[in-house]
Amino acid sequence: MSGIRENLKLAKQAQVREEVLKSAAKLFAERGYRAVTVGDIAQDLGFTKSAIYYYFPNKEEILWAITEESYDVYIQLAAETLKKNLPPDEALAAIVHSHAMQVMTRREWTAIFFKDQMEISEKRQKLVRQRQREYAGMIEKVYRAGVEAKLFRDLPIPVVVNSIYGQCNWLYVWYRETGRISPDAVANYQVEILMSGFKA
Amino acid sequence: MSGIRENLKLAKQAQVREEVLKSAAKLFAERGYRAVTVGDIAQDLGFTKSAIYYYFPNKEEILWAITEESYDVYIQLAAETLKKNLPPDEALAAIVHSHAMQVMTRREWTAIFFKDQMEISEKRQKLVRQRQREYAGMIEKVYRAGVEAKLFRDLPIPVVVNSIYGQCNWLYVWYRETGRISPDAVANYQVEILMSGFKA
Q: For an engineered disulfide with B172, which of A14, A57, B17, B110 has Cβ 3.0 to 4.6 Å away?
């Protein structure tokens, strides 16, 4: 019985932790990281400040958890695609599509990349660059396989990777779900434009 | 004689004003707009603070002058291309190329778009949006002519415009002139990728 109770408790804690991150991401995106206090996050959720401190010792840890989780999501999605052993053009199309979808459907999390990266400590910036290299490495692997298979032009890898980031991440700046084009349709357009550009 | 002297004086003033903007753009990009004082700009140029105040009543006016001049440059370059009455695909390629070049060769000015736009007053934000619409309208005009001429696919205009902005503006994030690829070569890659994507 105590095992079940323990599991329930952990599941509940994971859920609350996620709620804290979601609220913080929203508030950071709206007001800027510096302007938001742990008290604001507590108020937004109807929690006490000490309830937040149970999960995170300070605001920087919250920002860091948001950053880590963002990288986790992008890398995990790409890893799932790679596992399927698709032809390189289909694999890259799938990676671009899910990257674009993430930017559009998790706008607040994306905002933090654009605005609050400089608030992360130098030590952690190194971890960020490591995750960035990991993700870029996955794209590079697929692209090189595609060049090998004569599906893609032999473009410099930084141009390839950053054309994908540019088009997909820029969606954060302009795309609003209130518009007439669905996120899926927009993601498909980005895929089509980039894949035509990469085609051998 | 006094006419000549007056012209020389105005030319000198325009030059000094430009130096102030250049220094300010550099410092804003390095340290963030809020952290820079008019005194810092004066010090960077070896001027007195009152020399700066002769040109700009305050720091916000400097930021605004940088913003206006940036839009002027982009719009003027596109206008020069449009004047040539090139076929739409050549015209759009030229606009993309010069947009990409501007981002790469005036990195500090581009940084201000990314980081300091929220420091501009609401009244001036309206002017910014007007300039943005003007520039986007020029791209739209060329693209529609290209669709008409069956050179381009009939993509939604926001997708077209923002794919261009995404790829070109993202150069600010990643491109450094110290790398192995020249700005011109990178601009050409962006042109090729986008134009393949737009091709009918």
A: B110
